[in-house]
Amino acid sequence: MPRVFDGKVIIGFGGADINFTRGYVTTYDAETGKQLWRWYAVPGNPAVDTDETTKLAAKSWSGEWWKMGGGGTVWNAMTYDAETDTVFLGTGNGAPWNHKARSEGKGDNLFLCSIVAVNAKTGAYKWHYQFNPGETWDYNSVFDMPLATLEIDGKPRKVIMQAPKNGFFYVIDRETGKLISAEPYVKVNWASRIDLATGRPVENPAARYENGSTFQIWPSGRGGHSWPPMAFSPKTRLVYIPVMEKTMNWADYKVAGGEWMKDQPMGTPQTATANSLPFKTDPINDTSRLDAWDPVTQKRVWSQPTPSMEGGGAMATAGNLVFQGRLDGIFAAYAADSGRMLWSFDAKAPIIAPPISYSVGGRQ
Length: 364
Known about the structure:
mainly beta; four-stranded antiparallel sheet; globular; Methanol Dehydrogenase, Chain A
């Protein structure tokens, strides 16, 4: 989905889950369509791509990753900060998924599963924060990234926030990229915590399902939160997150040559390249809910269950309201401060996209 800012249009694309793809975004002049700049999320062949950012990223890869694309597609969230003329890009998972198949199991693989800040005029790299170094679980980070000024430790901090698939809620200084806080918002077992000194996860070694092993992971590859947007309310200072509690199995599965990703009955191994790749199973009892989350204390304030495996995107308004659609067709309005349901409407069809609000004649 394209974004428009300051006379420019920026667009990325998807596809890293189904093909050998190298992710990038392109920015155009909104009036003329002239290409202004392009930024690549992962490095290409180091013999050809020699700019400084590519050199930085290439040091974190191993083998001949560029022959499989590398992934990192920017298929959803892009946020513009007019104050600093910065574009924040949320990048996707690797291609193939398995770190071993993609990069010989070595390196952080920049800039997969990251927020990357670039100059809005030139596309020049400013900083990055990587959620999952050496990512191997389809934990992409392409989801909405609200900007806010929060009072933290008695001081105002300009922050960017994200609840990526991996189950931790992150608050990051948007001027420097330094991690301020990160806490789990769903059940997590692939890591015990995020080290605030290094910004890196303290991983459970078994979670990497190496050498033929299997690991039941929380959250699943669908994530604790996916593309249905969360919402931030400047009035309540809370974030409203469509949350999923799901588990799945990852396994190191040896296969012959073929396609690395192909539709299979749920629970069976997926075909792959000659390298090992994982398979997945979906759980029987998926649950979901709408959570009000305090980004300063990193704690849940209230929660409303949603009777399906996934809830729709949320929207908050200045009138102390939060709206959300659900897969059972119910569109509901809640009190933003307490979570009390105020009214609901049966749309007679599943709802997954977020609501929108507009004004006519000064009336919302």
